[in-house]
Amino acid sequence: MRAVVITEHGDPDVLVVTEVPDPEPGPEEVLVAVRATALNRADLLQRKGFYPEPGPPRAHEIPGMELAGTVAAIGDRVSEWSVGDEVMGIVSGGAYAERIVVHERQLLRVPAAVGLADAAAIPEVWITAWDALVLQGGLTVGRHALVHAGASGVGSAALQLCRTLGARVVTTTSTTKVEACRALGADVAVDYTVDDFVEAAWEATDGLGVDVVLDVIGGDYLARNLKALRTGGTIVQVGVMGRGRTEIDLGALMPKRARLVGTVLRGRPVEEKIAVTQRFSREIMPLFDTGAVAPVIDTRYDLDHIAEAHRHMESNANIGKILIDVGV
After folding, report:
1. Which CATH superfamily includes the segment(s) 2-122+266-325?
2. Helices (H), 49-91
3. How far apart (Å, rounded) are the C-alpha atoms in residues 237 and 215?
4. Strand partners for 16
5. pTM value > 0.85
């Protein structure tokens, strides 16, 4: 099969499409013929050598953390899927390839309203946003969230989730993406190049502060997130697009009885990935069928133009997901 293999770390040109052996499914695994995958910031870090796939090294380092495709073969104990089923899912790596094996319970059905080609834009960012806001942040109807990078993949999912849950949301974005964030459900879209999101959060909540912060930036945003937070609120850190190191005033953290939660999906044990995937299937997947939510797709590239796709993500010009068409 064809796959993108990292043989050395560096700029996008190190990404090489080459032939590698097809994987074989284990007893509880499904072999998926990949129709499309999608880019995530973790892919850029892995390419540079900063975020390797967890677990024992594979024979070939193939990035890619989400996919949509068709079941091509099943293991002896697989009971939930049949050959020909259209599926999507999250993985720890290996999705930049024509075929991949996935545990059967890490897979989700493809919503009919979305379709196979676009479904690869769902698993990673939607599960990340929902897990961070709802499961870890406790967001519910009537509460307030602050979502950074509202036009990103995670951000575009988070804004729609807040709107659907009946929560109010303040988001940060760049000048050219403000209107897109409003269209996705932001009650307040803050242009971070000219405005202060702390002031916007206080104004939107009548001086109480937000209940949950979903942050993919890090760095000096942490101290400002704390200022924007309500007493008893939660900051959920899911990325560090800015800087990973910063200082925080513990004297400001304690009186607010605040929680700071750091989280990633990629490094979790397979049992935890299965649990969150199955709950997402029950609670959120029906929303795609009704059209209440939908993946936001910025651009598509074919597998041979993977380096160009990485450059596009690094330019921070995208609104929503960047998809890679792998099969047909």
Report:
1. Medium-chain alcohol dehydrogenases, catalytic domain (3.90.180.10)
2. none
3. 5
4. 5
5. yes
